[in-house]
Amino acid sequence: MTETPIHALPPSNPSSAKCETRSTCCYCGVGCGVIIEHTAEQITGVRGDPDHPANFGRLCTKGSTLHLTMTPDSLAVRALYPELRTSRDEQRVRTDWNTALDHAADKFAAVIREHGADAVAFYISGQLLTEDYYVFNKLAKGLIGTNNVDTNSRLCMSSAVAGYKQTLGADSPPACYDDVKHAGCLFITGSNTAFAHPILFRRIEDARAANPAMKMIVVDPRRTDTAEQADLHLALLPGTDIALYNAMLHVMLWEDWIKPDYIAAHTEGFEALRKAVREYTPAMASEICGVPKKDIETAAEWFANGGQPSGTPGGATMSMYCMGTNQSSHGTHNNAAIINMHLATAQIGKPGAGPFSLTGQPNAMGGREVGGLANLLSAHRDLANPAHRAEVAKFWGIADVPEKPGLSAVELFDAMAAGTVKAVWISCTNPAQSMPDQNLVHKALQTCDFVVLQEAYRNTETARFADLLLPATSWGEKTGTVTNSERCISRVIQAVPAPGEARHDWEAAIDFARRLGEKIGNAHTGALFPYANEEEIWNEHRESTRGRDLDITGLSYATLEQKGPQQWPFPQDAQSGKVRLYEDGIFPTESGRAQFVVTEHRDLADKADARYPIRMTTGRLRDQWHGMSRTGTVARLYAHEAEPMIHLHADDMERRGIKDGELARVKSRRGEIVIKVVASKSVRSGQAFLPMHWGGNAMGGGGANTLTIKAFDPYSKQPELKHSAVQIEKYSAADSGGPIKSLVAMRRVDAGANALQILEELREQMKGMPQASLTLAGRDTPVVVLRAQTEALTAEALHTLDVTLSLADDTQCLSYRDVRRDIAKRARVEDNKIAAVRLTGETKAASWLQDMMVNGGAATEARKWLLAPLAEPPTGNPARGKIICNCFDVSENEISAALAGGESLEQVQTRLKCGTNCGSCLPELKRLSTRNT
């Protein structure tokens, strides 16, 4: 690491001065370092930090476009000042911070006095900084006296936490990124790493190139881009993970590939597990999982022997797993069954080996470190442990920490819906899009007496439920620390000032805490919250870890800035952090031994049957993040998958009479949506895939989590977001109860207009449409795209739509109307470019019109055909198709044509540059090359 940190220039510099600041990416748990390019007022660019140990300068498509989320236009969707309503039948109005926080303190104090401390709650986020997290945890458990503080990490990593604790004794991932290059076998399960953690996947590609003998096993119901690269893909049926892992261990026992000496010296409970897995023969597991018996045996051999031929010593196996294992009603045991295999074969505590959970969010690990879950306390202490509660109470200088367990995420929203939690503070998360069973979550937010939302974006789905909206700082505006998947702590340094009246999350929480403490008569308030800045919070958190498994008493802000990111533990007087854990075979359990856990195959919570026959899974897209409040502001990030679609096998589509691109009604036991269907070879018949990102801001009907189930794992309380049983039928006019017609409305947003503001206006107008998608297209000049199936629009509604699109002026527009067939079209051309189009009743030309608008091509030849019912462009230029390489704007059609024309993949990359920058598209490029070959 460099010894000279890069800092922002002081505010006294001229606003046009160019400067750079080191920070971290705010997306996934890989924790990439970034260098922010900016002036004193505005972020102008971003590039990967070549000295950061997580990414060494690489960034994925999302990270490399971070600066595009911080343009002046982005202020159109930012929360810039507090907004308050005192009655649910009112709109929020602008207020000042003092009024806002006094009102919030009054409301919380009144609820606490009348109903007790457990009638209030906090729901926070894995995207908060560690310092923010620490303050919220202390506010709830130390000041108010409730353990009702949970986080969206409950939806993400809590099963990994519980799995580590049940087996290894602590929430301490033992492996690290560097282990990838030392592994002889990579066992990737429940993770589409190529999409969800692209920069880590670059390391995997590099390691396999350096060691062609390395084996890669991918366990996933879908043939994802990660699975495409595997030496062995185990396409198991959803929810059958434990049967597979137990069968693999069965084979290891049968073939004598386990390590009895290690088991005897360092573990407990193996005999009970041996007895249980005896029943899980490969033949039995093959029936349960839908995986060939021979493949199970091969996977067991590679895993046990580190990719080496059986009997060859020294091979190392590293497993990587994420939401596919965690988001399950038996997610903890999914994790434990993986770790059982590592312990039985001594594949842990050495280079290239170990169970490695991939963190979903940028600081879910940091939140766990400070106890930011309803069942945890600071520094990996357990709420259920009286000694731990006493330690924290003494450290905070309070009488006690409440014993009663807090409400986990699902339980919290159930309690809100039931009226027992009457005030909630939500920070940096969007439960009205991300929680399962959205109909219940929306009811909970409507029922709860007082909802505070502390948020950077004022347009999230949750914002419409907020009684008080507090503007928060965002990426590039915050200071603190984060911890990534490999226990590596990085500094986050502010580059630009907060916009408007936005405040840091910790700052607002402390201001609120001091006011609330006075109102509820807590004499300890001043001592609990003495902090003047982030570093003072960090120093207290650091001291709370002394002597714990994650001891970081040897770290400081200065150390992190001078030496760069460091892994924990890093105790006082240490010179460096610990790269990998448990090398000595001693574990943080009462006996010092790791614990085998007996795991049994269980059915999914949401069973498929004759009425709901399709097993639908959810997951990530390559270029979007969570609920898209940030990535959804960048037009080019829609290019890879342009709109909400459910992926379905061609056989299932044929049985239902659905053609590629047509609409389907997808219904679960909890709700339904109408969505476009795309034929996919990645799912087998009887299964479907729906990206998690689409919510009510991007589509009609509320999005993916309208369908998902709230049932959760008994140990981690993580809900089964990954799987839902659904029925899928072709959507027709009869489903809406009346005649419907197609609508496509598009506007190219040149300088002087704001695409995000237009999106906001169209969101209001698409409400109530049976089906709608609202997205962006293009690159430097965005095009706003609304596609819908709707009932006949009133003249007033159509005029409002035309005003939004700049199509209301008859003197500036081309128009066509067929009253008999109820077809109406309008188009506007400015500077010989198509500026706006609205097609109702007949929309065949929508695709090529969008291409022309995106490309900004001359409209001279096409002008007379703009309103014609033509499915193909009149100029003869073919549609570009899906964009594969976002860095250099290279489409699938261009790549396929080049490969079909005889060019090698290397020649295509040299000529078109695809895959030569961030590398996110490399798996897809390789797949296209293989298929064309």
Features:
six-stranded mixed barrel, 36 strands, 19% strand, disordered N terminus, alpha/beta, 933 residues
Strand-helix topology:
Layout: E1 19-24, E2 33-38, E3 43-48, E4 83-84, E5 93-94, H1 97-115, E6 120-124, H2 130-144, E7 149-151, H3 158-167, H4 179-182, E8 185-189, H5 193-196, H6 198-210, E9 215-219, H7 225-228, E10 232-234, H8 241-254, H9 260-266, E11 267-268, H10 270-277, H11 282-289, H12 293-304, E12 317-321, H13 323-326, H14 331-344, E13 354-357, H15 364-369, E14 376-377, E15 381-382, H16 386-396, H17 409-418, E16 423-427, H18 431-434, H19 438-447, E17 450-455, E18 468-471, E19 480-483, E20 488-492, H20 505-519, H21 525-528, H22 534-544, H23 557-563, E21 566-567, E22 594-595, E23 614-619, E24 645-648, H24 650-655, E25 663-667, E26 672-679, E27 687-691, E28 723-730, E29 741-748, H25 755-766, E30 771-778, E31 782-790, H26 795-804, E32 814-818, E33 823-830, E34 833-840, H27 846-855, E35 883-885, E36 890-891, H28 892-900, H29 905-912, H30 922-932
Parallel strand pairs: 6-7, 6-16, 8-9, 8-12, 9-10, 11-22, 12-13, 16-17, 17-18, 23-27, 24-26
Antiparallel strand pairs: 1-2, 2-3, 4-5, 4-18, 14-15, 19-20, 20-21, 23-28, 24-27, 25-26, 25-28, 29-31, 29-34, 30-31, 32-33, 33-34, 35-36
Helix pairs in contact: 1-20, 2-20, 2-22, 3-14, 8-11, 8-12, 8-14, 11-12, 17-19, 25-26, 28-30
